[in-house]
Amino acid sequence: MSLKRNILFLAILVCGCRFAAADTVQLKDKAAITGNILSEKSDSVAVDVGYTVLVVPRNAITKVDKAKQMLSPSTTVAPLLNGAQFYSLGPVNAPNREVSQLVKTIGEAVVQVRTPGGLGSGFFINEDGYLITNFHVIEGETEISVEVYHQNKGQLDRVTYKQVKIIAINKFHDLALLHIEDKNAPKFKYVSLGTSDVLNVGDSVFAIGSPLGLERTVTQGIISTKTRQLEGQLYLQTSAQINPGNSGGPLFNLAGEVVGVTNMKITFGEGLGFAIPVELVRNFLDHRDAFAYSTDNPNNPYHYLVPPSRTNQKPEEK
């Protein structure tokens, strides 16, 4: 199948899908692709259509329509059962600040995730103890603890929480949602989610995590590229140093918003770290019921509904 026909087929396939505040790429032959535009280059446009990312050549495009998104700090994205907001988005055009100031403000929201097999990092997305980390940090583990650094009279007190439940997993995007369920757990400091769409190559970013177990390590760098493709997935590439133990930690912009989740590096080079774009995190959280963790099949990244059984149906009257 030619590239043009392949794009047309996929465009028709996704036209029946509905996206909230979706972008639209109008193609020649009156077809269209609806999804989230991840990047625009002089020769191509990358579009996330939900189940894959399409890289569409410019010569196949007639028009690009971007959806208008009004973001505010109080935007409610995915409610909890009690009606509270599940995670918050950063304000539009938030001012940049010094990294040293931001670390003091948001550093308490970054945690260590420990298992018998190793450790990683994570970060709270709300005050009720829900946090994001990488799937590979907790893969195959049943004993998970989270170490939190609480501010107490100008100092940091490390507290370990051992009642940690896996809420949802997506091994394809290497994401996991955990929840601290210890009794008498306090309200936790949390961070806001930003967007990687407005990032430019060369923009400054910084990471907080526990590389090699060195907790609360801060590394700073720039966005090297926004569309590094590895094993069929698009990643943010950054020069901020990423090492084992950083996995699952946040990558921040200079407004203090999470723009990615650090998850890997090239081991035989320096300054070659990678992060999962925050748009995938938001999609994971918005559809967390579809990725609900099940002890019956703990490695399954999707949660399927049980089909109706004929045995449960009443026989038709004759």
Task: Please describe the structure with a list of short key phrases separated by commas or semicolons.
318 residues; SH3 type barrels; Thrombin, subunit H; seven-stranded antiparallel sheet; six-stranded antiparallel β-barrel; disordered N terminus
In words, what does this structure look like?
With 318 residues, this protein is mostly beta strands. The termini are far apart. The protein contains four helices and 18 strands. Among the domains are: 3-65, SH3 type barrels (Roll); 99-191, Thrombin, subunit H (Beta Barrel). It has helices at 3-15, 99-106, 135-138, 278-286; strands spanning 23-27, 32-40, 44-48, 53-57, 61-65, 110-115, 118-124, 130-133, 145-152, 155-161, 164-170, 175-180, 204-209, 217-230, 233-238, 250-252, 258-265, 273-277.
Give a quick precis of the structure.
This protein is mainly beta. It has helices at residues 3-15, 99-106, 135-138, 278-286; strands spanning 23-27, 32-40, 44-48, 53-57, 61-65, 110-115, 118-124, 130-133, 145-152, 155-161, 164-170, 175-180, 204-209, 217-230, 233-238, 250-252, 258-265, 273-277.
- Outline the biggest β-sheet: 7 strands, antiparallel
SS field, number of helical segments: 4
CATH second-level architecture of the domain at 99-191: Beta Barrel
Write down the overall mean pLDDT.
80
Kindly report the name of the CATH homologous superfamily of the domain at 99-191. Trypsin-like serine proteases
CATH class of the domain at 99-191: Mainly Beta
Secondary structure: helix percent: 10-25%
The termini sit apart by 52 Å
DSSP strand count: 18
CATH fold-level topology of the domain at 99-191: Thrombin, subunit H
Trace the largest sheet across and list its strands.
Answer: 10-9-6-7-8-12-11
Beta-strand content:
35-45%
What structural category do the secondary elements indicate? Answer: mainly beta
Q: Which geometry do the CA atoms define?
A: globular
Task: Give the uncertain stretches in residue-range form.
Answer: 1-20, 69-83
